[in-house]
Amino acid sequence: MNKAELVASIAEKSELTKKDAENALNAFMQTVEEALIEGDKIQLVGFGTFEVRERKAREGRNPRDPEQVIQIPASKAPVFKAGKSLKEAVNK
């Protein structure tokens, strides 16, 4: 499902116009992004949790030259962990 299909589905289920559904979806995505940038964790009970995890610096291998060791710098990665209700619904 792409964004346009998601907007159409939200509009249909919530009885909003597609424009209002798109605005709501964009606002949700922007809010999640801003919260993660600030280091906050977003927990939607039953659905899941959005958070940022720190990745340590490490050594890796150059795919083109496996003998060459390269340094991979530390970074932050956004992560979504599914909640219990979502996991149960998917596994039915």
From TrEMBL:
<keyword id="KW-0226">DNA condensation</keyword>
<dbReference type="GO" id="GO:0006270">
    <property type="term" value="P:DNA replication initiation"/>
</dbReference>
<dbReference type="InterPro" id="IPR000119">
    <property type="entry name" value="Hist_DNA-bd"/>
</dbReference>
<dbReference type="GO" id="GO:0030527">
    <property type="term" value="F:structural constituent of chromatin"/>
</dbReference>
<dbReference type="GO" id="GO:1990103">
    <property type="term" value="C:DnaA-HU complex"/>
</dbReference>
<dbReference type="GO" id="GO:0030261">
    <property type="term" value="P:chromosome condensation"/>
</dbReference>
<protein>
    <submittedName>
        <fullName>DNA-binding protein HU</fullName>
    </submittedName>
</protein>
<dbReference type="InterPro" id="IPR010992">
    <property type="entry name" value="IHF-like_DNA-bd_dom_sf"/>
</dbReference>
<dbReference type="GO" id="GO:0042802">
    <property type="term" value="F:identical protein binding"/>
</dbReference>
<keyword id="KW-0238">DNA-binding</keyword>
<dbReference type="GO" id="GO:0010467">
    <property type="term" value="P:gene expression"/>
</dbReference>
<dbReference type="GO" id="GO:1990178">
    <property type="term" value="C:HU-DNA complex"/>
</dbReference>
<dbReference type="Pfam" id="PF00216">
    <property type="entry name" value="Bac_DNA_binding"/>
</dbReference>
<dbReference type="GO" id="GO:0005829">
    <property type="term" value="C:cytosol"/>
</dbReference>
<comment type="similarity">
    <text>Belongs to the bacterial histone-like protein family.</text>
</comment>
<dbReference type="GO" id="GO:0003677">
    <property type="term" value="F:DNA binding"/>
</dbReference>
